Amino acid sequence: MDVTMVGLQNAGKTSLLRVLSGGEFTIERPAPFSGMWERYCRGVNAIVFIVDMADPKVLSVAREELHSLMAQPSLRGIPLLVLGNKSDLPNRLTVDELIDELDLAEIGHREVSCYGISAKEETNLDAVLEWLMKWANK
Ligand SMILES: Nc1nc2c(ncn2[C@@H]2O[C@H](COP(=O)(O)OP(=O)(O)OP(=O)(O)O)[C@@H](O)[C@H]2O)c(=O)[nH]1
Ligand SMILES: [Mg+2]
C-alpha cells in the first residue's frame, strides 16, 4: 500500500501523519512543494490531498494546484481522497462547500472522495482509514 499525501503549507500534513502513524497504515512521503507532487504521486495506490478548510485564503491556490496535479496523464485513474482539515475551527467550510470551492465534480478518470477531519482532535479519522483500506488491495 503506497499512499502519497500532498497539500499546501500549513494544511496539517505533519499533524495528520503523526496521528495516523502507529495505525495499520502509514502514509509515507509527504511531498514538499507542489512542483514535486507529480513525481511523488506516480505509481501510488492512492493520493491524499489535504487542505485547511478553515482558511478561505488558501482555497483558490489549493484548487489550482489540485486540478493541475489531476490533469497529469501519469496519474490517471489513481483514487483521490480530499481531506478538509481543521474541522474543529468555528469558521470552517462544510464538506459540501469545500467540494464546491475545489470544483471536485470536475475531476475525472478516478474515484474521488472528500471528508472533513480534524487532525488536532482526531475527528473522523476512522473514515480515512476505512477509505485507505478500501483501496489497499486494488
Ligand atoms: N485547529 C487545528 N489546527 C491544526 C489541525 N491540524 C493542524 N493544525 C495546526 O496547523 C498548523 C500546521 O500544521 P502542520 O501539521 O505543521 O501542517 P503541514 O501541512 O505539515 O505544514 P508544512 O509542513 O509547513 O507544509 C500547526 O499549527 C498545527 O497545530 C487541526 O485539525 N485543527
Ligand atoms: Mg509539515
From TrEMBL:
- A single Gene Ontology CC term: lytic vacuole membrane
Q: Which GO terms describe its molecular function?
A: GTP binding; GTPase activity; metal ion binding
Q: Which InterPro entries match?
A: P-loop_NTPase, Small_GTPase_ARF/SAR
User: Which keywords belong to this entry?
Assistant: GTP-binding, Magnesium, Metal-binding, Nucleotide-binding
Annotated residues for binding of Mg(2+): T14
In this chain, GTP is annotated as bound at G7, L8, Q9, N10, A11, G12, K13, T14, N85, K86, S87, D88
Keyword Coiled coil listed? The answer is: no
Q: What is this protein called?
A: Uncharacterized protein
Taxonomic source organism = Parascedosporium putredinis
